[in-house]
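Lecture notes, part 5. Sequence design as translation. It can be helpful to think of inverse folding as translation between two languages: the language of shapes and the language of residues. The source text, in structure tokens, appears below.
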């Protein structure tokens, strides 16, 4: 019986649904999958694998980076995967990140206008710009896979400065972009990747 933890945080609540849907794809009769917020995931000892997830909020949520640093010794010897919820992602060829298995929701990733990301929005939302700080936070922690999923954005829940950042830099549209089938399929792919 293998035990997996999905540890996550959220700014406005929508990442919890992503965690639950990953569990639907991942769960088998021979496994258990727990879902805990970072603040409640105090010990990782009981788990064979840990999935760490958070939304992009001015980069991957600061609590995710803190969680990786705090638990880096434990996570360095476990199977680990990361996911992020986002509203805007500029495509870069996943081959350049091999052997890391990158997944991004095809509805989320938009090709840059030129060969490489250019301009503030494309550079800020480029896969590599999101990914590098996620990988550098705890360099001994080597995820087998990182996934970027469409999230959910409700402008009415944001503070004024958050709304300005999201509109001007990320140029995000408000709405529901969680692609449940794609999220579930990553959960299923993790059945093998986390073995
Ligand atoms: C202040 C703020 C900054 C954000 N920054 C980004 C960003 O850099 N890139 C992006 O794709 N989405 C960004 N988003 C959108 C969120 O990642 C998205 O809405 C996510 O689904 C929120 O998840 P949650 O409901 O669990 O907090 C931002 C949202 C807020 C409020």
């Amino acid at each position: 019986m293998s035990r997996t933890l999905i540890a996550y945080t959220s700014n406005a609540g929508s990442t919890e649904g992503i965690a639950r849907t990953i569990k639907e794809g991942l769960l088998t009769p021979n496994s258990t999958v727990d879902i805990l917020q970072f603040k409640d995931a105090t010990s990782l000892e009981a788990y064979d694998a840990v999935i760490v997830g958070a939304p992009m909020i001015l980069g991957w949520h600061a609590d995710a980076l803190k969680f990786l640093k705090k638990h880096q010794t434990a996570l360095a010897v476990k199977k680990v995967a990361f996911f992020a919820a986002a509203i805007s992602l500029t495509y870069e060829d996943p081959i350049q990140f091999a052997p890391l298995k990158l997944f991004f929701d095809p509805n989320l990733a938009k090709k840059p206008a030129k060969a490489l990301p250019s301009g503030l929005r494309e550079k800020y939302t480029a896969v590599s710009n999101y990914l590098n700080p996620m990988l550098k936070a705890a360099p001994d922690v080597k995820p087998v896979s990182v996934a970027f999923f469409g999230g959910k954005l409700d402008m009415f829940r944001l503070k004024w400065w958050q709304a300005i950042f999201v509109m001007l830099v990320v140029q995000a549209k408000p709405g529901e972009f969680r692609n449940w089938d794609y999220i579930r399929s990553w959960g299923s792919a993790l059945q093998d990747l986390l073995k």
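The translated text above is only one of many valid answers, since several sequences can fold into similar shapes. The helical segments are 15-26, 62-70, 72-75, 119-124, 127-136, 160-170, 180-193.
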